[in-house]
Amino acid sequence: MKERIGVYICHCGGNISDYVDVEKVRQAVEHEKGVALAKTTLFACSDANQNDMVEDIRTHNLDGVIVASCSPKLHLTTFRNVTERGELNKYTYVHTNIREQASWAHSNDKEGATDKAIRLVKAAIAKSRFAEPLYPNLFEAEKTIAVIGAGIAGMKAAAALADKQTEVLLIEKEHRVGGHTATWGTLAMTEESGSTLTERIYHDLLRRENVTIMTGTEVISSKGSIGNFTLKVRKRPTKDGDPVETAEFTVGSVVVATGFDSYQPKEGELGFAQSDNVITLPEFRHLIDRAEGKELVYNGRKIRHIAYIYCVGSRQTNGENTYCSRFCCTSAIHASILVKKKFAKINNYHLNRGIRTYGKQELLYAESLAMGDLYLQWGEETPPAVVMEGKGATITLRDILSSNRELELEADLVVLVTGMVPRADNSVGTLFKLPRGRDRFFNEVHMKLRPVETVIDGVTIAGSCQGPKNITESVNSALSAATKSFSLISKGTLETEPIVAEVNSDICSWCGKCAEACPFDAILQKEVGGKTVAMVNNSVCKGCGMCAPVCPPDAINLINYSSEEIMSMIDALA
Amino acid sequence: MASKINPRFSEELKRYGSVNFNACYNCGNCTAVCSLSSPDNSFPREMVRLSALGLEDELKQSLKPWECYYCGECTTQCPQTANPGELMMSLRRWLTAQYDWTGLSGLLYRSLAFTIAALLLVAAGVLFFARTFGFDVATLLHAGHRFEMLAIATVFLVIFIPNLLRMWHFTIVKQKVRTPMMSYITALPELFINMFTQRKAKDCDEKDNFRWLEHLVLVFAYLSLLFTTVFLNWFGTGSLFIIVLGYVESFLISVITVHFVSGRIRQNKSLNKFSQPSDWLFVIWLLLMGLTAFLVRLFIDLNILENNIWMYILHLTVLAQWALIIVPFGKWTHFLYRSFAHYFARIRSLQKS
Q: Which residues of B touch chain A, with CB atoms under 8 Å apart?
């Protein structure tokens, strides 16, 4: 029970004091039970006031601190740290919001706002009396890290982690590594082949003793949380009759790099599957990578005129893929340059919706223009019409760049510049409960500030499983995810917030309602003295409080928000 | 009706001197800076686009290349160095070849070898002609004068009238312009004003009126020298006024063309950066015309032509090459086509209102 509480009431410039009579609030609470000191301050968050608070804690021998100011989202951490500097346990600090909840909400009723502020501060004092010192939960963290997916992102993440002297498990579902990249020939800008690139990284990984590469292996279950994930994997047999092997590994964190699927056009979409001469961009890449001789021949027909239709499966106005797939403009233009360099007589027609060869890739666009390629631009409302005639196609479209003239061209081959879609197989996402965005790719916590972390602690995302990326961008995100995953567990111990739920096992008789309510899978079953009770996994619990109200015998207590504290606050508010 | 794309057309246009116009990425800077552009009428990107797509019929029916006077602003501002100004220039060459029913124009533009062969052939003809007259000055002067008149009449009847009719066919008939006969008369001032004053060039390049003035003086000097030699018989007259007039005219032609040639050598503005053989030929032969005419008359006045018959043969050679090659099939025709383009454009606009 706190007996020497310091209360600070903030003016927030005029944000609070213009509507709330802060002096009246101070007078109303200074004689409350347990209050040793009550002050008003122009800006509680200012350096000067923070130093005064530390000084007050010492000279007045305070055992609890309350600041009545803005939202705790803004300054809870600030004042917890001030309390800590005054050598009090920072969890004994109580914050109350009289700006958003009083002055701003009731700017038309100054008296009412002041009255509400008084009651909010009194409630805070009531809570403060019961505030207990708390200490962060410490765990030992497993220092092995799993990388799921051995495409270019997964392999680069594994190599970066291996550099940090930690054990790495690289788990790949396919029987080979390299993902999509390994299947591409010459790549844009660097002019190396995709397989050269992936083989180079693969050989680098093979040399490293702390990297275990498991191909043909799927993760089939995951238990535990940051610091201690238990992954169960299953080795897919390479041939019929081989036994299916399973194994379990414990890892501290996980990098998910499961990649993308190529968009498959629907039958009849721009002539797809209605003619052999309408193919997708990856199919076209494989065709030209293998093609030899003086003429490009496909299906027994000499190819002279190639039409590339852009944004197939991307930037859909009526479909669900509203996003831009980023890599395809560059990739299609690069392929068109390759094919023209290999077979001089080729004419390329780029039926696009605006070319997005951003950054240095613009050079490819310039090169293609200089080679005499034709660029025609269509709008989302008027897609090109592809009519198959004999072995070729007649394409008509309204060209935005020619005052919407209706133009016609004949093509021997139509290349649908297909984009990226999320993996149809979302098993890894399901295992870790990774949230997905509206684009159905995995979602990061914050697009700009926390771009590789997910809301699941200990699970980061790398490469195109997060959204369309080219190789450069995938590798960038992989290196970042590797560093982030490693930094989470690098100390060997983990600290988590002490504000979690706790189960009174004397009262609990396991009905399972709390486990159903928990959004984080933090509640487990446990045998205590011959009976089954609920147990909270402290490393996973976020202290959200969803479990407490659903417990029929009221066996769950949320630390820092005990029934005692909340009831006394309600009493003070009334 | 959808227009069919012809990617090979840009290869064809390269032979008429187009430079790098494929690099265009349709930003529209050229349209933004062009003083001819208006919301309803886009210059010059539309032409760049039609050329890239190879829509020959639409190009043939367009008068726009003639409305451009090559101020070069588009080329200066182009971020892709796609030279839209030079594209317009090469389209004018290509159109000249399209209007010409003989097909010789196209051959001369596309092939330097053919041009040189034609020039040599005419020179040989002149020598042969001079020899049949025994290199006699009086006879040659007389015959040269007759040739000049004959050449003008023939070129006019056999080449210009049919070619202008073809131009009219492409740009008026094929465009389905329906207009009362009267508009052909009410539009006539447009034809003559532009033919003699190039008024629109002045509007095109407000910063550089000197070039417009130079060109204006050159046009008048050239036309009046033509008149002075053909109808006032400069080389045969005794009238002091006519003699001095001819000297002034040929002097002006020489001075201005020397300035034009030096501009093309120095490449001082975009207009002068990409000279084709046809451009050199036009301006150098005009210079030679003025210079040799001046010298012939000087030789007559100094009474030394008799012993220097080569001077007159040289002049006659230049004249014959000019009248038989450059005037009917070469760059000289821009004088006609450009002014008729303004005339036809005026007729088209009368239809709308």
A: 1-5, 7, 10, 20, 22-26, 42, 46, 49-50, 52-53, 55, 80
